[in-house]
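pipeline/complex-builder :: batch 7 item 3
reading input block
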Amino acid sequence: MLQLHNTVIHGQDKLMTEPKTKDSHLSVNVWRGGDEGELVNYQVPARENQTVLDVITEIQRFQQPDLAYRFACRVGVCGSCAMTVNGLPRWTCRTHIKKVVDNGQLTVEPLRNLPRIKDLVCDLEPFIDTWKKAGAPFSGSRTRYDPPANIKPDSPLRQAADAGLQCINCAVCYSACDVVHWNRDYVGPAALNRAWTLVNDVRHAKRQETFEKAFSENGCQSCHSHGNCTRHCPIQLNPSESITGLKKMVFKGLPKEDK
Amino acid sequence: MNRYLFIAQRVSAMILAPLVIIHLGLILYAVSDGLSGAEILSRTRGSWAWASFYFAFVLSVAVHAPIGIRNILKEWTSMNQSIINGFCLLFGLMLLLLGIRAVTSVV
């Protein structure tokens, strides 16, 4: 048995800290079923170091083998493990239990605003479709025979685009957005944030087209600037600011390419 | 069309903001010594300044309000988009006509 910090590795498939005490447990309510379903309670050993994803994994491995949930990297890169934890959307792999547990209670449900498939898994297709609606595909203006574009990293345009990059497509902002909740046709913060990065990217050949798509029916003008997207974004992006930037562009026009 | 409606609503809001403040200030001033039809008409009759002011007011309201109503109906009802558009267009025309009628009757 290998002791590593507070972690005990018993075998190849076990990586978890020792329970705090023998009788210390978390009371975890987990959504079972699709759109029609119910919360089912599980008692999970409380440990010094465990994330929400650890708790769900422990339930699936030791109590409910048919529990469906989604994860991949477990380190906050892939964006596949987002769920609703105690009513708020979060990336579960980087959410420590201590941050969210409420009097020993935890409620884990699938993300809001997306069709539920089974248990904690939702269908992300409507979310991915919004990216296309908002003009997301990058369209290069050069061929492989052309030299690479010379982009100054500190130019205002590049800085504006950079501010919206690194989105991990976790759909937390889409789930947090109240406008999406009452109007499923609204493209939502992630897609508009992506559109913002593209209209500021001078390498993108269809900047005007992307801008027009971002401003089409149910586009950025539908945003009410509640700021839930920014508040819940796990990697501290600011989609709300990107959407405001798009709205301002309707008066200023597309920013000119840096000389 | 959405872009132009968005621009129209913001621009009309920018015009309305000072006009509403002046209008409210005028109400406070006008009622301070009692309000009568004669008193209102004595101020507005033959005044191109007040006529221009209230024509601008009516025009801005007739642009601003229907676009806002359109957004609300779109978000909160399941009404067909073309029905919403038609209703808001009629609502805007009604505001415009009633507003112009009101202004012309006191100038």
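note: The longest helix of chain A spans residues 239-252.
queue -> next item
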